[in-house]
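pinging the channel bc i need a second pair of eyes. not urgent but kinda urgent?? the chain im working w is below, pasted from the shared doc
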Amino acid sequence: MPANELLSRLAAAPGVYRGRGDGPESGPFVARMAVTSAVHGRALILDYEATNDRDGLQHVEHTVLVVGEGGRPELHVACLKLPGVVRFAQTAPNQFTAYEGPMVARITLTVPQPGAVSYGWWWSRDEAEPREQFRAEMRRSG
């Protein structure tokens, strides 16, 4: 996917996305992502949360998607599980990787079709390659 295609596809369909997710780290959950355009479409705000019946609010994050100085998309992520705001740079189509902190983490973000978003987190607690810990499949509501 070209550098700004992901940004363009998401900017063309702002709104609230809802769906379900699952993974070895999270178990089944309900996901919600609000996609909001900022700075005249040059940045997108992605407000994501996951809940389940057992734990209530499992995960919440505030992310900014921009095209960085090098022309590649970047995610700037703030959530309680990270040490401050962490920059994830695109390292492959639909994959964003961060090498900051004690472990390598990866986020996958795709727009498989208009009005749909797939969002996943990958990591490993040891020196192994990161593996998918959870993924949410969401569709735009309304």
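so Residues 5-11 form the longest helix (7 residues). and The chain has one domain: 5-140. — does that match what u expected or am i reading it wrong
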